């Protein structure tokens, strides 16, 4: 069965103009084009559009989305991973909503006689927030590398920073998809991603074999960093660490 571009636009909420743009950049070509020039899409194209829209929800750019889609092996495994991440984010947002609602209730109901408010359990104010690595700890553990990194960051514009963050997220997703499909960390395709990861780090500082392995271990040991990786996929921090060890032994020793 095939659907016209107008039907796909109506179903997905994506404008026909956007769908034509996706075709022009090679992200979502139609299954076929009729003699009248109208684009038609089949089921596989709708599934691909769904994945594009999922990644747009993560604020990935079109080039990053293209790279992710091109790297996919097992479509069902990838969709399962997207589904797991969406459910996890839903649960986190529900927890945050509950936290804010509880705070509102306490501020409205628990007023002291002088008009000030009191919170029964202050630790409840922060339930549901994601942990982040402590900047001071990073500076203490790697002072020289910290200074080098800060010098590079100081030269980056807001657009540079946003683009870099999107590229990092896209690469994390690609590596997660290798993990979800059962690809060994030593696989050449995974190691190619690790080479790109290492080269990206070298924009800020140049780790040797031991330092690169240590960085990978930090991804596992630091609760904030591990949470960021495992937010993409459970076990991703360990998989990334293992792949970094293999890369360091093969390329940096």
UniProtKB/TrEMBL annotation:
It comes from the Bacteria. It comes from Streptomyces decoyicus. InterPro entries: DNA-bd_dom_put_sf, MerR-type_HTH_dom, MerR_fam, TipA-like_antibiotic-bd, TipAS_dom. Gene3D superfamilies: 1.10.1660.10, Antibiotic binding domain of TipA-like multidrug resistance regulators (1.10.490.50). The keyword Transcription regulation applies. Keywords: Activator, DNA-binding, Transcription, Transcription regulation. Residues 2-71 form the HTH merR-type domain. This is MerR family transcriptional regulator.
